[in-house]
Specification:
Blueprint lengths: L1 E3 L2 E2 L9 H15 L3 E3 L1 H8 L3 H15 L20 H13 L9 H10 L6 E5 L2 H12 L7 H13 L1 H4 L8 H15 L1 H7 L5 H9 L19 H11 L4 H10 L1 H10 L6 H6 L1 H10 L12 H10 L2 E3 L5 E3 L2 H10 L3 H10 L1 H6 L1 H5 L7 H11 L5 H8 L7 E6 L2 E6 L6 H16 L4 E4 L22 E3 L5 E9 L7 E10 L4 E4 L9 E3 L12 E8 L7 E12 L8 E9 L11 E4 L6 E8 L4 E9 L11 H12 L6 H8 L6 E5 L9 E2 L11
Parallel strand pairs: 2-4, 3-4, 9-21, 21-22
Antiparallel strand pairs: 1-2, 5-6, 7-8, 10-20, 11-15, 11-17, 12-13, 12-16, 14-15, 16-19, 17-18, 19-20
Helix pairs in contact: 1-2, 1-3, 6-7, 7-9, 9-10, 9-11, 10-12, 18-19, 23-24
Length: 689
């Protein structure tokens, strides 16, 4: 498979195969006619594989560099023919001049000697890529958060097959669409159940798998998705995979997509198959709860399971006596609302990650009487928390007026009212960071870096909310939204911009008011069919922005159609340019709109400070609304982001410094001593030691 422009990777097997060697050398001679020389290392690697693998691989290379598929360059009985193609004439000449016959194709020594004695000019080398380069490409493609094109996806599937034995050691492929596409590519060779496990699939990937068997573009599971019929073997594999999850996790996942699972279980006729019901009782119980069965009608075989789930609060009975799931989030929420400290801690002990991802929300359930115990509980969990989460908690400003909470594609801005004890927890976080990454000596910083914001410290490639990007020296700033609607309905996205002056007086540029003295709107587009989709943009003339303007806030609303995540493609971005005409070509910063929301504020343009601040605000309840509806939230959002405590290089240096005045590390823009100096680009090396 292709790793770079003229570099290919094929795994080397243990033994040499003469027939595969013939195929590889035939390709070698075929490509030489068109100016390409295949290096001996690649020929050797191909020659260690089976004839089938060798032929398939050689044909892929030939299709890319020559006019067709593999043909024998030394044909038989040519003396009796009277008409020859140009290619055949070349082959004849090679046969006469080099005394080359078809038998020589399997002679590695002769072929290598032949090429070493011939002076070849103006040829392009086709080389064997090393295994590490192939693994790096696999990691890069598997970590993508955007859709891959067909060629990239084929490469990823092929690499996943090669590295199948070690794929389980990798992180889960982030993109749902890409992960299940790879699953579809692996199942025939490695088995469906085994591929589910190796790719670290989620229960919802079962739904995606059955949907994408019908239509590869349905990974987002629209409400009218059609599931493929499954063979007996496929159904067994699917149910075996679901059976590997414990009850609580499985029903948590089913509770997030109740209607989809209800349709799925009905589709595979689970209740009609006694073998399924008897063999997979966990699935049978979960399916019945998903279907909303009445408690009194549940089969006796499930009584013990039901009692356990009722005691755990995972399942409860409604007033109509039907059984329903209670998700983990809903159980925590009810405990917080009741300020039931024991229930809060019981839940968080099972999923401590929830505490740190939703720290501000959990604080609402902690009363004064429980503050001391809660601090001790948090301290006990800190060693298990990743550094990006610890730094995020350091970013809480106890004095902030507002805080931002994200819940399933919905961003909530509420009064902060942070308790004072957060400062104690932040001190513990600094001690925890020092214990992991600190130095015995002093960590110093160049003066021009001391007050600069740290790049996001997660190994995730995305920027964190509150991250800032400086203006470029350009005449124009373009903000745009591009989308491609799915096959089921028309989607109309509207891009608008709200401006605020120093006194918070606002003005809106949108489809009904498309121009002011410094902003121009491209116009309203109400349809974005595949494959090209549609793009709306606004152009900000940076040289004409009035002196008293402080903020410009872009906002994208779904006027009609699907939520963002149900579009085939949807993203927002910005680019600086000196060209008064907009184009999607060239460099730009892009953020995918992949939440189940219908309104998004991606970033804030701070004109006074010449920087753009990422905010990623989503709203699920604004379909059909315009930008004017969010003006109050915009003001709160600006306040919340600006009040965020900023972690600078200077702050990090203080956290990592020990008691000694001896300089052990230095943040700099110019590396002088690689053993001590660290530039911004290599900052993460500290957290990889």
């Amino acid at each position: 498979m292709q790793i770079s422009k003229n570099s290919f990777f094929i795994p080397t097997q243990n033994s040499f195969n003469i027939e595969s060697c013939k195929i590889a050398n035939a390709m070698r001679l075929e490509l030489l006619k068109t100016g390409y020389l295949v290096m001996p290392e690649l020929i050797t690697a191909i020659s260690t594989n089976s004839e089938k693998v060798a032929a398939a691989f050689c044909n892929k290379i030939l299709k890319q560099y020559s006019i067709g598929t593999l043909t024998a360059p030394l044909f038989k009985n040519w003396e009796n023919r009277t008409r020859f193609t140009f290619d055949e004439c070349v082959i004849q000449i090679m046969g006469y001049y080099f005394q080359l016959s078809g038998n020589d194709l399997s002679n590695r020594e002769y072929m290598d000697k032949l090429f070493s004695e011939v002076e070849l000019k103006d040829v392009t080398l086709i080389q064997l890529a090393d295994e590490q380069a192939a693994k790096d490409l696999f990691t890069s493609l598997s970590k993508t958060k955007v859709s891959l094109d067909r060629k990239q996806l084929d490469t990823l599937v092929n690499l996943a097959a090669v590295f199948y034995d070690t794929i389980s050691l990798q992180e889960r492929i982030y993109s749902d669409e890409v992960r299940v596409s790879v699953l579809l590519g692996l199942e025939n060779d490695f088995g469906l159940y085994e591929s589910f496990a190796a790719l670290k699939c989620k229960p919802s990937d079962v739904l995606r798998y059955c949907a994408m068997l019908v239509d590869p573009k349905t990974s987002n599971l629209p409400s009218d998705v059609i599931y493929s019929p499954l063979s007996w073997k496929q159904r067994i594999s699917v149910l075996q995979f679901l059976d590997t999850f414990d009850y609580e996790y499985l029903m948590e996942e089913l509770g997030k997509n109740r209607e989809a699972w209800k349709r799925f279980y009905k589709h595979i006729h689970l209740f009609e198959q006694k073998e399924f019901v008897n063999r997979f009782q966990k699935i049978g119980f979960s399916a019945r709860v998903s279907a909303g069965i009445k408690e009194r009608t549940i089969p006796r075989r499930y009584y013990r399971i039901l009692d356990e789930m009722l005691d755990a609060g995972v399942v409860e009975t409604t007033e109509a006596e039907t059984l329903v799931f209670r998700t983990f989030a809903s159980r925590v929420k009810s405990a917080i609302e009741a300020k039931d400290y024991e229930k809060i801690i019981k839940c968080l002990n099972k999923q401590p990650g929830y505490l740190f991802r939703n720290f501000a929300t959990v604080l609402n359930g902690i009363s004064k009487d429980n503050e001391s115990n809660f601090i001790q509980f948090v301290r006990s969990k800190l060693p298990k928390v990743s550094e990006d989460v610890l730094f995020a908690l350091l970013g809480l400003n106890v004095k902030a007026k507002y805080r931002i909470i994200d819940v399933k594609g919905n961003t909530i801005i509420e009064d902060a009212n942070y308790p004072d004890f957060i400062a104690d927890i932040q001190s513990d976080i600094k001690r925890e960071l020092y214990s992991r990454y600190g130095y015995s000596g002093k960590v110093t910083v160049d003066d021009d870096l001391k007050d600069k914001i740290l790049p996001f410290l997660s190994k995730n490639s995305e920027l964190d909310r509150g991250s800032k990007i400086d203006f470029q020296d350009s005449n124009y700033l373009y903000v745009f939204v591009h989308w491609v609607q799915n096959n089921f309905e028309r989607t109309d996205l509207d891009l608008s911009a709200v401006t605020f002056d120093e006194n918070w007086k606002s003005e809106t540029v949108y489809f009904g008011n498309q121009v002011n003295s410094y902003i121009t709107h491209s116009g309203d587009i109400t349809n974005a069919p595949a494959p090209s989709g549609a793009t709306e943009y606004i152009r900000i003339d940076l040289k004409k922005v009035p002196w008293n303007k402080q903020f410009i806030v872009p906002i994208i609303n779904v006027y009609t159609g699907s939520i963002f995540s149900e579009n085939a493609v949807a993203y927002v971005g910005f680019k600086f340019s000196n060209n008064p005409k907009f184009s999607l070509d060239g460099d730009f910063v892009r953020y995918d709109l992949n939440e189940p929301a219908n309104s998004n504020m991606p970033f804030i343009v701070d004109y006074k400070n010449h920087e753009i601040t990422l905010v990623d605000y989503n709203n699920r309840d604004r379909v059909g609304f315009t930008a004017h509806c969010e003006i109050d939230n915009m003001k709160k959002l600006i306040s919340a982001v600006n009040d965020k405590y900023i972690i600078t290089y200077g702050v990090l240096a203080d956290i990592l410094s020990g008691d000694s005045n001896f300089v052990s590390k230095h943040f700099t823009t110019n590396i002088i001593d690689p053993s001590i100096d660290i530039d911004p680009e290599h900052l993460l090396s500290i957290f990889n030691k």
